[in-house]
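Dear Dr. H.,

I hope your travels went smoothly. While you were away I took the liberty of generating a structure for the chain from your last submission, since the lab meeting agenda had it listed for discussion. I wanted you to have the full record in hand beforehand rather than looking at slides cold. The sequence, exactly as received, is reproduced here:
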Amino acid sequence: MLGSLEGMKRLIETVPSEVNGLNFCQGTVAEMGVDVIAAIRYFGSRGKIHHVHFRNVKGFIPRFDESFIDDGDVDMLEAMRAYKEVGYTGTIMPDHTPRVAGDGPGVQRGIAFALGYIKALMRAVDASEE
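The corresponding predicted structure, in token form, is as follows:
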């Protein structure tokens, strides 16, 4: 059911409850080959995004690659603007960051880079509204 945008829509429509929502993984949605920004607006405007995995990929199923947050197919600034636009106030976290030479098992450098990038995008979006 959750392997397609239609399936995700069916899930939220089948059980109409404020507690029925998504762990919205941008990378997974991007891998589906759909418009991620439109999907954020669709689910976010309905209050159905409960948690965000803010990651980026290149390509789509069946051939895609994990990428650094700033180096994939999704415009991450536009994505952050879309979350703000729909009033999303929940968690936004990195997910599936590539390994960097010297990383231990926790992919620390990739996570640190992604967290800094997310924070910078949040600041940029907030500053553009002032």
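Two observations you may find useful: The mean pLDDT is 92. Strands lie at 22-25, 49-53, 56-60, 63-67, 92-93.

With kind regards,
E. W.
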